[in-house]
Amino acid sequence: MIGVAATQAGFLAGLQPLLSNESSIYLPDSQQYVDATTRWDASTHPRLSAVVKVASEADVQRTVSCIEYANTHNIPFLGIGGGHGGSTALNHIQNGIGIWLRGLEGVNITADGKEAIVQAGHTTGEVAQQLWNKGKIAVTGGCDCVGFISPILGGGHGWLQGRYGLLADNLVSARLILANGTAMTVDSQTPDLFWALRGAGHNFGIVTSVHYRVHDRVAGQDGFGRATFTFRQDKVEGIYTIANQWLAAENRPVELAHWTNIVINATDKKPVISFFIYWQGDAVPAQYTDPLKALDPVSYIEEWLDLANLNAANGASEDGPACAKGGSHRTFPVNLVKYDTENMKRVVDIFSKLPAAFASSSVMLEGLGTNRVREIAEESTAFPHRSSNILASPLLSYAANDSSLDAVALDFGKQFRAAFLNNTEQPLRAYVNYANGDESNGATYGYDSWRLQRLQALKRLYDPTSKFSFYEPIEI
Predict the structure, then answer these.
(1) Is 112 exposed, middle or buried (0-12, 13-18, 19+ CB in 10 A)?
(2) pLDDT single digits (tens) 137-152
(3) Most buried one in 38, 85, 302, 340, CB count within 10 A?
C-alpha cells in the first residue's frame, strides 16, 4: 500500500501545476471527494485515490496527458458525470483517478438556432430546462439526474425519439480527449470514430462537449397528455394484448408512447401494474384509453405535462425518489420486439416472490416511439437495437453494503431475463446504458460479426492500452 500511495502522490504532484487555477484535486478525506464519488448504485464502487475536478477541456487533456506516468504505474482513469451508470465493470477500478466533469458548464444555442453546444458537466434535467427557457426542446432522457452526455454515447433513449431519433442520432459533433491526451473533434469528417461514438462511445475517451440538435418549441408538441392506469396482476394478458396491437400497427402514430412500472403494493404486498400512455399533444385519444378502461382499472387519471417537467412527474427530478443516491440498484435490461403475455405473467410472478428487502424494486417497460429510430439505417451507428420496440428493465433496489443481497439481486435478475426471453428464440439484447455488467459484447454491441470486428479495430487504434475500459469494455 505504501508503494501505491507514493505512486498516487507522485502523479498528483506532477499534475497539480498543469491544471487551471479554477480546478481542484480532492482526496478521500474531503466532503468534495464524497460528493463526487457517491453513486446512484452503491453496489458499484470504483476505488479512486483522488478526484480531479476539472474546469476546462484543457484540464481534462492535461490530466489524461499524464498518461505516460499513469501507464508506467498502471493508474486507471474514470470520467465522472452524473454518477448514474451501474455496470459492475466499474468495480474493476482500483487506486484510480476520477475526472469530475461538473465544472464544465454551458448550454448555448448556435446562431442558426438548430444546435446547442453543451458542456459535459450538465445533467439531463439541467439541459432540458435551459433549452426550455430558451424556447427550444430536444431528445432528452427520462431521468433528470443522469449526466446529459453519457447516455448519448450508448445510443440514448428519450421522450421525443419517435419524432427525432435516439439521442445519438441527434449528435452533430463531440470534443473527445483520447487516451494519449489528444483533443479532437469527432463528426462526419471522422466517420469511423463518429460511428463508434454513437453506441459505444465510452470506450474511446472522455467527451468534454457536444453539438446537439435542438428544435423550436411548438404549441401542441412541447408536452404530453398522459393517461395513468393502475391494475391488479390478473389484468396482465389484457393490458399487453392491447399494447401489442399498437406496436403492430402499420402506421403507428409518432405521438404515441407507453410505459409500465410494476411495483409492490405497500398494503397487501402484491404486485400492482401502473400503465402509462403518453401522447405528444393535448390529450391521449380515446381510441387508446377506452380499451384499457374496459379492463376495469383500480384507478385512472388523465393530465397534461410539459416536456420540462415530465421527468419530475415520474419521480425522476434531481431531488426525486428515482434519483436518490446511497442505496443499491441493479438493472437487468432486455430488449424486446413485442410482449409475450405468458412471459409477462411469469415476470409478475417472479416479482411477487422478491424478498422483503427488495420491497422498493420495480420492473420498468419502456415503449417509447420508434418511428424515426427505425428510419435511420441499422449500420449507420454502433447502436445495435433499432429493431426493438420495448426496453424491459427489472430494477432491484435494496440496502447498500450487503454482499448477500447483491447475490440475491443477481439471481433474481437472471430469472427475470430468462422469463422475458422464454420461447422467443432470441438471444439477450441489452441496452448498454442500463447494463448490469455480466452481459457479453454481443448482447450490448450486437451479434453481427462485422459490428464487433469494427469496434475492436477502432479500440485497438484509439485506445490500444485499454485506458477507457471500465464500463462495458470492448474486448480486444
Answers:
(1) exposed
(2) 999 999 999 999 999 9
(3) 85
